[in-house]
Amino acid sequence: MINESIQNLESMLNDESGKLSKSKKRRIIMRLSKLKKGLRGEVEIGGQIQKSIKTIKREMKQKSMNSSISLRKNSNVVCLCCRKKGHQMSDCRYYKQTNEEAENGDNEINSISERNASGKEVFKCFLCGELGHTLKDCKKPRNDNSVLPFASCFRCGKTGHIVAFCPNNETGSIYPRGGSCNICGSVKHLARNCDQQISKTNKNKKSIEGKNKEKMNIGMDDPDLMWNEAM
Questions:
Q1: H-assigned helices in 16-160
Q2: What global pTM score does this model have?
Q3: Of 140, 190, 197, 228, which alpha carbon lies 20 to 30 A from 75's?
């Protein structure tokens, strides 16, 4: 094992000598010297080549810069749980507290997704509880949007409703920075989940299908086409 390490380090010095920095070469030579002493039984050896102090300082400086950049980016971020600025929901103390209560049995929280037999994550419908589709694709009739038996609210941590209908949500809005659905103006759903958008999409599909059928019927009744087929 020691001989193999010595060979690897010597080959590194010989083959990649031009690519290595002076400090890296110096540390490799020191490591080789220690390995050879360990081979003779003079010292105990173990571990890897230590990073230089310069490298450690550079990495620490980079980490501090990254943390300061992330703080500046999050200064205007609004938490979807407590609605306060400066952090995201994943870092929210209130959100973590509700999760801890749920794990201790003080609250009920059901995940919006589960894993199937192969371990793949699949979505769970808030309305019917079936896996494989979301609320907007559910075929079960919906009388009251505020009643969703399989939904879990990340505002209060309870089941049966989403944040838009949470009693702790004074504004009733799911838009933390303001705004609304650009189709109907509601603040309780996103534009992609708007009923008007879904009905409009269905109408467009039906109109396209109707036009395609008309073209097919015209083609079948076309006398020129019938004449060519007869020929």
A1: 22-39, 53-73, 93-103
A2: 0.30
A3: 190
